[in-house]
Design a protein that fits this description.
Elements: H1 3-8, H2 33-40, H3 56-68, E1 73-77, H4 80-91, E2 97-100, H5 106-116, E3 122-125, H6 131-137, E4 142-148, H7 160-169, E5 174-177, H8 182-185, E6 195-199, E7 213-217, H9 219-232, H10 238-248, H11 251-270, E8 275-279, H12 289-295, E9 302-307, H13 311-319, E10 325-326, E11 336-338, H14 350-356, E12 362-366, H15 372-388
Parallel strand pairs: 2-3, 2-4, 4-5, 5-6, 10-11
Antiparallel strand pairs: 1-7, 6-7, 8-9, 9-12, 11-12
The chain binds pyridoxal-5'-phosphate.
Pyridoxal-5'-phosphate binds next to helix 4 and helix 5.
């Protein structure tokens, strides 16, 4: 079945046969001989005992996400960070090494630096756009390769099949955080990755009204990650799972609108004299435009750019927008603007931010699904404002 159909389709085995999976607000379930047996056999994950382990609404969402990502199994978590942390803590322990890139969401970078290092895990940062550099970084201690695709906020693209070949040559797992791409624009597992991670707070949720995360992988990998997730307690709430099942039904429609609007906005910005540089994989000027065509089925809703002026001009520009709201986060139906330097990447020191290339005046737009003319007019008016101001 095509992804559009998988997004919409839902079947429940409820006796009343509802069209939608209900939200099950129950922390616990009546025990039976079967549940005792599953617990005794170490199969507690597959039995309804306690909602930190399993909940029918969350299980329906996991099932749907696994099918959408062409994976065997999935683990829903309380946030994208809980997904990233559960994944990393499943694979990495004292003496192990993580090979990753500095091109990461600030929270992920901060988790690696402030948590993993403290556990005696070493980190090798590489250029995620160079499979050769990734291969050279692998040592006997390497236990996991983790990259974002598309990266936050500079929208770099990683060559997933090339990195998967490197990882598998060394019998290592390759994990990809595909939050920016969503399951509609990219299929990391089909491209060769072993694990895909999402912050479902973004495109999958799509309405800026919930926090959640998801890991999709083989059943064995998911069982391990589920164990870590339940021990640390980062399970998804069934209300968030219910909202996500609803959001998934329009994911393909929303992503098509995000892709179209963002390309039009990126083209407009690139042609504007106040704009110094635009990063967008769908523009011919993106250094990896050709690779983006192979890796992505749509270029996404994120556009990053820099003005000619200083960050004060950037702030004035953001504050004079009317349709677009100044807010952190991304992936919702509404267009949001922020400066990663002091929002998504504020966890990093000035030196760390400079090393990734995130400078104070860099502006990140999460282009929504409004009418594109209203967005372009709003941006145009705000840009003219700083010119005359
Ligand atoms: C690429 C990426 N991964 C992970 C996360 C963390 O997700 P959450 O905020 O749901 O914990 C974010 C948040 O912005 C992100 O952009």
């Amino acid at each position: 079945m095509r992804r559009e159909t998988l997004c919409v389709m839902e079947k429940t085995d409820e006796p009343s046969r509802p069209v939608n999976t209900p939200a099950y607000f129950s922390s616990t379930y009546h025990l039976s001989d079967d549940s005792y047996k599953k617990i005794a056999d170490g199969e507690g994950r597959r039995s309804y005992v306690y909602s930190r382990w399993r909940n029918p609404t969350t299980a329906a969402l996991e099932h749907k996400m696994a099918r959408l990502e062409d994976g065997e199994n999935a683990v829903a978590t309380s946030s994208g960070m809980a997904a990233v942390a559960s994944l990393m803590l499943s694979f990495l322990g004292e003496g192990d090494e993580l090979v990753t890139s500095r091109d990461l969401y600030g929270g992920t970078f901060s988790f690696i630096e402030r948590e993993l290092r403290g556990l005696g895990i070493s980190i090798r940062y590489v250029d995620c756009t160079s499979p050769r550099e990734v291969a050279a970084a692998i040592s006997d201690d390497t236990a996991l390769l983790f990259f974002e695709s598309v990266t936050n906020p500079l929208l770099r693209i990683v060559d997933i099949p090339a990195l998967a070949a490197v990882a598998h040559e060394h019998e290592l797992p390759l994990a990809v955080d595909a939050t920016f791409a969503s399951p509609i624009n990219q299929q990391p597992l089909s491209l060769g990755a072993d694990i895909v991670v999402h912050s479902t707070s973004k495109y999958i949720g799509g309405h800026s009204d919930l926090i959640g995360g998801m890991v999709v992988a083989s059943r064995d990998i998911c069982d391990d990650i589920w164990g870590t997730m339940t021990r640390y307690g980062g399970c998804m709430d069934p209300h968030a799972a219910f909202l996500l099942l609803r959001s998934l039904k329009t994911l393909h429609l929303r992503m098509a609108a995000h892709n179209d609007n963002a390309l039009a906005v990126a083209r407009f910005l690139e042609g504007h004299e106040q704009v110094d540089r635009v990063w967008y994989p769908g523009l011919e000027s993106h250094p990896q435009h050709v690779l983006a065509g192979d890796m992505l089925e749509g270029s996404g809703g994120m556009v990053t750019f820099r003005l000619h002026g200083d960050d004060g001009d950037g702030l004035r520009f953001m504050r004079s927008l009317e349709v677009v709201s100044e807010a952190a986060s991304l992936g919702g139906v509404e267009t949001l603007v922020s400066m990663p330097y002091n929002t998504s990447h504020s966890y990093l020191s000035a030196e760390e931010r400079a090393a990734i290339g995130i400078m104070p005046g860099t502006i990140r737009l999460s282009v929504g699904v409004e009418h594109v003319d209203d967005l372009v007019n709003d941006l145009d008016r705000a840009l003219e404002g700083i010119q005359s101001g």
